[in-house]
Amino acid sequence: MEFQDYYEALGVKRTADADEIKRAYRKLARKHHPDVSKDAASEEAFKSAGEAYDVLKDPEKRAAYDALGADWQSGQKFRPPPDWQSDYQFSEAGAEGVNPEAFSDFFETLFRRGHPGSGFSGDQNLRGQDQHARITVDIADVFRGAKRTLTLRVPQVDASGHVRIRDRSVSVSIPRGITAGQFIRLKGQGSPGLGDAPSGDLFLEVVFAAHPQFQIVGRDVHLTLPVAPWEAALGGKIRMPTPGGSVELKVPKNARSGQKLRLKGRGLPGAVPGNLIATLQIVNPPVKTEAGREFYKKMAAEMSFDPRAEMEE
Amino acid sequence: MKLTSARQPPSDVIEALTLAELGRFCHAETDWIIELVEHGILEPGGLSQIEWRFTGINILRARKARRLSQDLGLNMAGIAMVLDLLEERDRLLHELGMHREV
Fold first, then answer.
1. Higher pLDDT, residue A118 or A255
2. What is the Cα–Cα distance from A198 to B73, expressed in whole angstroms?
3. If residue B80 lies in a helix (H) or strand (E), which one and from where to where?
4. What's the CA angle centered on A229, arms A226 and A235, to 5 degrees?
5. Residue A261 CB partners (closer than 8 Å, separation 6+)
6. Cβ contacts (< 8 Å) between B14 and chain A: which residues?
7. What Å distances lie between residue B67 and A46, A121, A154, A297, CA to CA?
8. What is the Cα gyration radius of chain B?
C-alpha cells in the first residue's frame, strides 16, 4: 500500500496544533466540498482532507501516525510495522460521521477498527446500513436505457476485527428517461445485517456526464447549432445531431444568430418528454481563394446592408 | 426456451419518500427533516406530516443539506442560503455555457 502524508494533505506543518489542523481542514472542506465545487479533482481532495483530519484531530491516532516517523513520503510503498495491530486500539468516537465508503488502503489498514459484537448485546438482529454512491450516466444512455456494472470498495470487518477492503461488483440497470438528481435504489445491496436481519439498500445518485455539445436543464436539451450564412438567409431543412439520434430541423428564412428554435418533445424522454432547444450560430466560411473574395465583393456591392446602422455616433 | 441471465438485483427509481423514509435515507432524525421543511428548504406534497411525500429535487436537497450540515457544520439558515446560491450559480453557469463559442 502507499503511504499517505496527512500533514501534506491538510497543508500544515508536523508541529501544527489542534486549532491549526481544524482551521486547515475547515478551509479545505469548504473549498472542495463535492456539493459546492464543480472541479472534478475536488472530490478526491475532499476525501483526502477528511481522511487526514480524521487521523490528525484524534490525539491517539495522531500519536500513532507520528510514531511511524517523519521520513515517509506520500505515495511511497508502505508496510505497517509488525506490532501495529496489537499496539494500538483506537476508540472510535461514535458511528456518526464515520464515512461508510472506504478511505485509502493505508487508512483502512491502520486506523479503521471494527468492533465485532461490541455495542450489540447477544444475538440482536440489526438491519444493515444503507449505502450511497454516485453513478455517472451518459446522456445517450438516457434515451435507450443501459446496463452498467459498478465496482464499489467496501470495508469489511472479519471475525478478528481486522478490516479488509473488498471490491464488489453490482450490476445496475439504468432506466430510459432517468434524470440527474434522481436516485436508483438497489434493494438489499447495502451493508449486510447482523444476525438474521436483512441487508441495507444501496442508493445511487444519478449524475450526467458532461457533454461537449449538449447541455441538460431539467428534461430540456440545449445545444448551439452552427449554420452557414446562406442556410440562415434562405432557410430550409437541415439535419442536426441530438443525443437521441439526428433529426431534421426547419430553419426559418432570415434566421438570426442567437435565435432559438424549439423541437417539442425531442428532449430527454419521460412521461412528459423535454424539448430540444437549438440556438443558431451563424458561422462565416473562411475565404481562402480569389473566387471566394470576388464573391464577397459582389455581395458587398449588391446588398445594401449596414450592420452598424443602429449604433449611435 | 428461456435463457437464465446473470442475477440482477432488483432496482427501482425512487419516486417519492415519506418523512420516515427520507429520515432513514439521509441518516437523520425525522425532527431534523421537519426543520428543513419549516425553513422552506424542502416542500413536500400532502397536508399533514403523515401524508408528506418528498419527490424529485426535494430528495436531492435533503441529501445535500445533510452533507453540508455534517461536513461543514452549517446550521439551517446557512444550509438554506448555500442551497439557494448553488442553484443560482448552476443557472448562471448554464447561461454562460450557452454563450460559449462553438
1. A255
2. 32
3. helix B76-98
4. 90
5. A225, A249, A250, A251, A255, A277, A278, A280
6. 182-185, 203
7. 12, 31, 20, 63
8. 18
Question: Which residues fall within 8 angstroms of residue B7, CB to CB, at 6 or more apart?
Answer: none
The answer to whether the pTM exceeds 0.90 is no
| Nearest-angstrom CA–CA distance, B24 and B17 | 10
Strands (DSSP E) found in chain B: 11-13, 16-17, 54-55
Q: Å from A134 to nearest chain B CA?
A: 12
**SS3 label, residue A60:** helix
Residues of chain B contacting residue A26, judged by C-beta atoms under 8 Å apart:
72-73
Which of chain B's residues have a Cβ under 8 Å away from the Cβ of A283?
Answer: 102
Enumerate the β-bridge partners of residue A132. Answer: A203
Separation of alpha carbons A207 and A138, rounded Å: 9
- Rounded-to-integer distance, Cα A29 and Cα A44, Å: 11
Which three cell numbers, joined as nine digits, stand for A173? 440497470
d(CA A84, CA A290): 80
Q: Do the Cβ atoms of A141 and A85 come closer than 8 Å? A: no
Instruction: Give the gap in angstroms from C-alpha A285 to the nearest C-alpha of chain B.
Output: 14
Q: What is the pLDDT of residues A259-303, one digit of tens each?
A: 999 999 999 998 899 999 999 999 999 999 999 999 999 999 999
Residues of B in contact with A217 (CB under 8 A): 94
In a mutational test of the B interface, the residue from A179, A183, A213 whose CB has the highest number of chain B CBs within 10 Å is A183
pLDDT value for A27: 93
| d(CA A74, nearest CA chain B) in Å | 25
Nearest to B60 among A50, A181, A226 (CB): A181
Cell numbers for A32: 472542495
ipTM above 0.90, yes or no: no
Which 8-state DSSP code applies to residue B102? -
Nearest 5 degrees, angle CA A177-CA A182-CA A187? 100
Range with lowest mean pLDDT among A100-109, A214-223, B55-64, B76-85? A100-109
Residue A36 Cα, gap to closest chain B Cα (Å): 7
Q: Spell out which residues of chain B touch residue A29, defining contact as CB-CB under 8 Å.
A: 71-72
- Residues with Cβ < 8 Å from B74, sequence gap 6 or more? B68, B82
What is the gyration radius of the CA atoms in chain A, in angstroms?
29
